[in-house]
Write a structure and sequence with these properties.
The complex is a heterodimer of chains A (about 500) and B (about 130). Chain A is mainly α. Chain A has 23 helices and 2 strands. Chain B has one domain: Helix Hairpins, CATH 1.10.287. In chain B, helix 2 runs antiparallel to helix 3 and helix 3 packs antiparallel against helix 4. At the A-B interface, helix 6 and helix 7 of A face helix 2, helix 3, helix 4 and helix 5 of B.
């Protein structure tokens, strides 16, 4: 066994132990520790990615050296390593970009608590990506929920406490359903390791036994994870949670946390149940419909919103709708488009959150649109970054969002079911127009010169150097969007080969 | 008719599902935060009941080796019990977090009614 194969496990352990360690260190030390840890995990994940691409196959890693039906396992393929690498880069930039806000908005004695939560959250994301045991996945889903709740409520005011309460209620409903689904599945198959469950489910599907309980447990797990990742009718917790927490929390929550659950869902579909059984069960059609509704309704709500952070949050609802629409198409290429959209949305949504906080800081920290007039001139880099993020979201060529929309359209075209093709294309167009409406409205607003307003309210200009960490994060995010948009082919190939290994 | 006999034979599982439903609706629909948390606990406990029933085999002992009996036939399935223990740990920590949030909200708004809290927050902003 090559040494590199140990790295995923070391990544999880490293992030897990730096969490409690942060509780006894001072605020500054924990910040450094957190940055070092995420960088180390990023480098290690990149090494694992290189290893898996070279070897061309996935491998399982036994924990405690107990063989398959008894022990707990990690399973690593190209897709897992790619996701871990990208997630660590985004996590790092989100933490760096929001450092100033955290210093101002959190009490000085509570600085280190933030990093406990961030490290545990990162650990649970890595574990969700890598684990091959469904009950371990459930436990880390709960850790993810608790630490995400901590990230929301660490900025203490009435709004955030209410938002985290709302978040907890919805998440717990979701994880209750997920747990019940897992228990049903264990009851039906007698296994907890994903590959063993799949064998048994294939036997059940072949003999035609227990079809209704199997359908029930697929439904329970899907609905549970859909609630947790804020698919449209279950999105009520999302705008408050993203809109009022400190900036790096909102960026991490929207770009990584909700994606972790979707990845777990894809994993359940491919590795636990088997994609053929899922297609036969027609649950994809349900996801397709809810995805379409979410694409439109998220954008409509975003148009009505007068707070820039909440507007970006509602835009997340629409983008989650896109991802579920891709899953709902039920074809291989649809899932590939969804996974690419997970990456591209993570890159552009985090960019938008960082840029929006740069813009609001140049407007006396007001988040309503009237105060933002002309903010693009007061903070030039943030203005440009916001414009690029918006263009990427709308689907302007050369940026990441265009490629994912292109692949969604491609997936819709190649779909065998013509009603689905038509519906997907029509809604894709409507949603793009709506996206353009509210993002371009904002861009025009921040580039409307308003020297009188700035003078009257005494808004300060912010230079690139005056916000060095944020500028660094924004430049990296812009570069990432550009890279995802310009050289998407190798990434698409990685995702495709990763999905083949996934099953 | 056959479905009914199945239901009667598995009355424990049926009870667990009913309890799950009660807990779920309470967590979702109750306005009182404490009642919501009670709902959460009923929901989780229903899952543990279901798991415990699934692990139990009539006429067998708890899986602790006594008097040197090591035959598989003598014991019940220990894995569901392990899962229940893990689940209890999770649900305890989640309940504690929910309760602490409730205390925070109560100190600030002097009510446990979640709808009232929401309207108060909206007023605060205006």
């Amino acid at each position: 066994m090559a040494f590199v194969q140990n790295l995923p496990f070391i990544c999880i352990l490293l992030s897990l132990f730096t969490g409690p360690l942060s509780s006894i260190l001072s605020g500054k030390m924990t910040k450094k520790l957190n940055l070092v840890m995420i960088t180390a995990v990023g480098i290690m994940s990149a090494m694992v990615l290189a290893f898996t691409v070279k070897s061309g196959e996935a491998y399982t890693y036994m924990m405690g050296h107990f063989p398959a039906p008894w022990g707990n396992e990690i399973r690593v393929g190209v897709l897992e390593a790619l996701l871990a690498t990208v997630f660590s880069v985004i996590m790092l930039l989100c933490i760096v970009g929001g450092s100033k806000e955290r210093e101002e908005e959190l009490e000085s004695t509570k600085q280190n608590l933030y990093y406990i939560m961030a490290n545990l959250l990162f650990c649970s994301l890595l574990a969700l990506i890598y684990t091959n045991d469904i009950f371990t996945a459930y436990v880390f889903v709960e850790i993810n929920t608790i630490s995400a709740c901590g990230l929301i409520m660490i900025r203490q005011n009435g709004r955030t406490i209410e938002a985290s309460m709302r978040y907890m209620i919805m998440s717990l409903l979701g994880s209750g359903l997920l747990l019940l689904g897992i228990c049903f599945l264990y009851d039906l198959t007698g296994h907890l390791l994903m590959s063993n469950i799949k064998e048994q489910v294939q036997i059940l599907a072949a003999t035609g036994e227990y079809q209704i309980p199997l359908l029930v447990c697929i439904t329970l797990m899907t609905v549970g994870l859909a609630i947790k990742s804020a698919l449209y009718p279950f999105h009520t917790w999302l705008p408050d949670a993203y809109g009022y927490s400190t900036m790096s929390s909102s960026a991490i929550l929207s770009s990584l946390v909700s994606k972790g659950y979707i990845i777990l869902l894809i994993k359940i579909y491919y590795r636990v149940i088997g994609i053929d059984v899922i297609r036969a069960s027609k649950i994809t059609n349900v996801l397709f419909v809810f995805g379409l509704v979410g694409m439109v309704m998220g954008s409509v709500n975003a148009i009505k919103e007068n707070n820039i952070r909440r507007m970006i949050a509602y835009s997340s609802v629409a983008q989650i709708g896109y991802i579920y629409m891709g899953l709902g198409l039920g074809s291989e290429i649809g899932v590939i488009a969804s996974v690419f959209h997970i990456l591209s949305h993570a890159a552009s949504k985090a960019l938008l959150f960082v840029a929006a906080s740069g813009i609001t800081r140049a407007s006396g920290k007001n988040k309503d649109f009237a105060s933002l007039t002309g903010a693009g001139f007061r903070n030039r880099l943030a203005g440009i970054a916001f414009t690029i993020g918006s263009l990427s979201m709308v689907g302007f060529p050369t940026f990441a969002g265009f490629i994912s929309k292109f692949w969604f359209a491609q997936a819709a075209f190649e779909n065998a079911n013509h009603t689905k093709t038509m519906l997907a294309l029509i809604v894709l167009i409507i949603s793009t127009v709506l996206n353009a409406l509210y993002f371009m409205k904002t861009v025009i607003r921040i580039y409307t010169p308003a020297p009188a307003l700035a003078k009257e309210k005494n808004y300060q200009n912010i230079t690139v150097r005056g916000q060095a960490p944020k500028s660094f994060a924004m430049i990296c995010f812009v570069a990432m969007n550009f890279m995802l948009g310009m050289c998407s082919d190798p990434i698409m190939k990685l995702i495709q080969s990763g999905l083949e290994m996934f099953g | 008719m056959m479905n009914l006999t199945n239901l009667l034979a598995n009355y424990g599982e049926a009870a667990a599902m009913i309890l799950f439903g009660i807990g779920f609706t309470n967590l979702l629909l109750q306005n009182n935060l404490i009642k919501k948390i009670i709902g959460l606990n009923i929901m989780d406990t229903a899952v543990y009941l279901f798991l415990a029933l699934k692990g139990y085999i009539a006429g067998r002992q708890a899986p602790i080796v006594v008097d040197g009996v090591q035959s598989v036939e003598a014991y019940i399935n220990p894995i569901p019990s392990g899962l229940v223990l893990t689940g209890i740990v999770v649900s305890v920590s989640v309940s504690a977090l929910m309760l602490s949030l409730t205390i925070r909200l109560y100190r600030r708004y002097h009510t446990l009614n979640f709808d009232e809290i929401t309207t108060m927050i909206k007023k605060e902003e205006k």
